[in-house]
Structure formats: C-alpha cells, structure tokens
Amino acid sequence: MKNALLSCILTISSILIANMAIYAMRRRKVPGAFAFSLLLFAISFHSLGYAFELLSDTVDKMYFGVRFEYIGISFYPVIIAVFARQYADERRILTKSITSLLITISIATLIFVNTNTYHLLYYKSLGIDSTFGFNVLKLEKGIWYYVQSAALIFSNIYGVAAFAAKSKKSRGDYRKRALFMLTGCSIPVVVFVIYILGMGPAYIDIMTFAYMPMSLLIGVGMFRYEILFLTPVTHEMVFNSIDEAVIVADKNGRLISCNDSAKSIFPSMKRIGIGESLYLIEELCEYDFESDLDGYEIEGKIYSLKVIEMKGGRGRIYVANDITESEMAKKQLKKMAITDALTGIYNRRHFMEKLENEKTEGAFAIIDIDHFKNINDTFGHVEGDKVLVGFANKLKNSFSNDLVCRYGGEEFALFMDIYDLEMAFKRIEEFRKNIAEDKSGINFTFSAGVAKYRRKNLSECIVEADRRLYEAKGNGRNRVVY
C-alpha cells in the first residue's frame, strides 16, 4: 500500500513537471528556455520510471524502471549546467571542453546502465529489499556510478553558485526572483548529498521526491515573477559586440540588463545594480525615458536615443546610437550651403534670402576692393586670397550685428538696420579709413556704394548701390558714395 501511495505521488509529480516542460518548450526561442524544458522532461522521466519501479515485484521489472529513469538521469549533469549557464549568463567556468566532457559522461552513463549485465560497471549487483514493507531494488554501486555522481555534484554546485552570483548582482524584485531559482535548485543538491552519504532510507531514491518542491519554486519564479521569460539573457559575445548602447528595463523602468557599450557611454551604470531605477543613470537625468530623442549630447558627443517596446508591454529596450559624425557632417553641409568657401562669411544666395525674409528696411551697400587685379598680378593669387580673407574678417568684426557676405570676386555686400543713410555712410567711411591706414600687410583700399533698402525694392536697391559704387570708382576710388 505504501509503495502504491508513493508511486501515485510520483506519477502526479511527473505529469505536472511534464506540463511545465511543454510550457517552457513553447518558449524555446528565449535563451535558457530550451535547456530548462529538457531538464523538466528529464525529471519527468526519472519520476515516472521510479513510480513504475516501486510497483514492480521482480528484479527484472524493477530494472526496466531503472532503465526508463536513466533516460532522464543520465543527462542531468549537462542539462543542469547548461541551464544555469544560460540563465545566469556565466561563461568563464563552463567552457566548451567541460560541456563536451559532461555530454560524453551522460551518453556513457545511458549506455552503461542499459548494458550493465555485461560489465557491471554501473551496478555490481541487483537484489530486492523488503525492509519498508514493500519490495525495493537493492543496488550495489559500481565505479561508473561514482563518475556520474561526481559529474552531477559538479553541475549542481555550479548551478547553485551561478544562481547565487545572479542573486547577489540583482536588486529588489529581481533578487527575490533569483532567490526562488536558487532555493529551488538547492533542494536537489541537499537531498543528493544526503542520499550519497547514506543518511536517508536505504535503497529508496529520495531524489525523486525533491523535484516536486524544486519545480514549484522555479515555477513561482517563472510564472509569478516571469523570471526566465522577462530576463533577456543574451549571448555575451553578440550582446557586447554591439557598438550601440543597449539598455533593457522592465515595465516599471528598472534595469534588467545592459551591454558594455552602455557602461562606456554612461559610466554611472557601472554603479547601478539589476532591478534599480534607470533614473539613477546620471548622464540621462534630463532624458524622458518615455520617448525617442535625437541630438542628446553627452560629453561632446551626440546620440540618438530610441525606445523599443517589448511585446505585451513587459518592458522596454533603449538603444543609444552615436550620431556625432553624421550630425557634424550635416552641420558642415549646412555651413557649406550658406557660407563662402574661401572667406567663411555668408555667400550671396543666403545673404539675399535672409535680406528678403528677415529685413524690411535699412541701408544696403556694395563694397569693392580697389585694383584687386593688381594685387593678384603683383603678389600672386595666394596672397590675393589672403587679402580677401583678411578683409572679410575685418568687415564681419566691424559690423558684427549686421549682415555681410561675399558678393562675388572682390566684391562684398553689407546690410545695416539703419534707416538714415548718412549714419550708414559714417560707419562705412570710418571702416574705409581704417582699411586704408592699415600697414600690417598688403596695403589696399576699397570703394562702396550705399542705397536705401525696402523689402519690395530689392532689385532697385541693388541697381542703385551698384551705380553709386561705380560713381565712387569714377571719382578716384577709395571713397563711399550714398
């Protein structure tokens, strides 16, 4: 009767665990979900096989149950280790070599259990014990049993250590989630140690009874806190090779994960733990985490910040992309479109656009450097260009609140918000004298024509200013006419 009750409990446990395995398998695209599903299937095989073993009355029937159990038990070491590695995102200890060794041991165990009668490497002898009032299989362990046990102990200790490290790094609800996982995985470890040391009931596999509470605890972590399916455990090499900063947060704005680029761009993230608020990121203290943003500047660099909503509203992914070069290129193109390439002041087209769009009335002047061809012929075009650049800078500095441009060749244009032409004349005349008296480089003079500007008479204004410029030229140059 006792064996029937235990068998019933194990059968129910096996069915429940198999259902959890199917649920996890449906989410196998999530890193870690596939390994977790395989672990649950392995536990289900173990429990169901032992349930059959407890109901059997002969050694052969009991050992058939053992063979069925080892479809799952054989692969515990590699499945537990891989699941722990994927969930905790740990790569240093469980290398490819160790994983391959665990796979080899698992396959060898399955083979040795099914061929034990030929070599007795796994069990030296088989018998029946009736100490508990019902028949149980009495087993004498062989050398390979201890090899399998050593591999399983390693995997369990590795899993507990990985989950403990994950718990230590987490904060708030995420620590609770990791603790559920840690506690659940610790139960089989404790029970396994008791079983190996012979401190439990002789010849009773108490390990199978540890899997139900383990599955329930992991289930609480998974389904109540969505531990496996919300935490985006990514492949470290791929995640950290992305140049863009990637920050993953839950729906409450708490940190789930970030890559190395994020820590480089936002140094304060190195001090923020899993589960803590994104508002603790000092570099983003003024950023609205609800919206996309282009042109966010951090320490001289410009970033675009994009928000990606997770499916079902379970969280957000923030991607920061360095757009400094493209933004600088845009600014350079814009500058090239509105400025003169040689002198750096406005070009004629942009000057005219600003004049027509922004100004209603004032004084307009066309300025021409006298005998500029002689400067080129005497000193060369390089020196001639220096004269143009120097003159443009002096013009811009002297009329810093006004519009200036290179009108074409050695001609420049000037607009002043002055309605009195005489006052405009005095300012330009003063500038003319300063240029004529400047002995610091090549000495030259200029002539200028000044006309009254009104928005609707731009063409007439240009013609009038040009006429007065040539009047100044005809009267001996080096003068301003208005």
UniProtKB/TrEMBL annotation:
Pfam families assigned: GGDEF, HisKA_7TM, PAS_8
GO molecular function, a single term: diguanylate cyclase activity
GGDEF domain segment(s): 360-482
Keyword Transcription in annotation: no
Transmembrane spans: 6-25, 32-50, 70-88, 100-123, 143-165, 177-197, 203-223
Record's keyword terms, sorted: Membrane, Transmembrane, Transmembrane helix
Annotated SMART domains: GGDEF
Highest rank taxon of the organism: Bacteria
Entry protein name: Diguanylate cyclase
